[in-house]
Amino acid sequence: MQVDECYQLGHVIKKHGLNGGVTIFLDVDFPEEYSELESVFVEVNKKLVPFFIEHISIKGKKANVKFEEVDSVEDAEGLKSHAIYLPLSSLPDLGDDQFYFHQVVGYKIIDLNSKVDGLIKSVLTGPQQDLFEVEIKGKEALIPISDQIIERIDHEKKCIEISAPDGLLEIYLEP
Fold first, then answer.
1. Residue 171: in which H helix or E strand, if any?
2. Which of 33, 130, 136, 160 has the highest CB neighbour count under 10 A?
């Protein structure tokens, strides 16, 4: 399994307890959906290594996890800060008007009001607002990800049509 075939579920924050447990930050919208996990991939030395789960307990965005064969504080401490992955194939299918953030990187974005278009370079997540980082005419623009702005998503054409508020794109494009 390669990283580009996976999505990052989260990362190990710290050891938990004295028997090799760890606390994982779950960087997902609905952490409780992962309460039945049987295994994950942990990035170790730039390779994905499968780890099987003995026990998982989720509280908010954190999970206390006991992996098989991680039986000491030292073993658990060695996993600190390591990224946790799951295969992309494990993601549930979404409706036509929905998307996963990793999925739209590289999509074209078109503003229906100004006819300006650009390319989504990345998605920035924040506590208040998620943003598309878009390259338009060689400049970077940040566009809020909002149902009020997104008009249509065409996954076949890899294109998102938006209606940007007046002035939003202009502030990035003015010399």
1. helix 170-173
2. 160
CA distance 69 to 37: 17
Question: CA 65 → CA 4, 20, 41, 105, 118, distances in Å?
Answer: 24, 9, 13, 31, 42
Q: Which residue has tokens 């579920």?
A: 9
Query: What is the Cα–Cα distance from 9 to 119, expressed in whole angstroms?
Result: 25
- Give 10-residue mean pLDDT values along the chain (175 residues): 90 96 93 94 96 97 97 96 94 83 93 94 90 95 95 95 93 84
End-to-end CA, the chain: 46
Per the CB < 8 A criterion, the answer to whether 109 and 117 are in contact is: yes
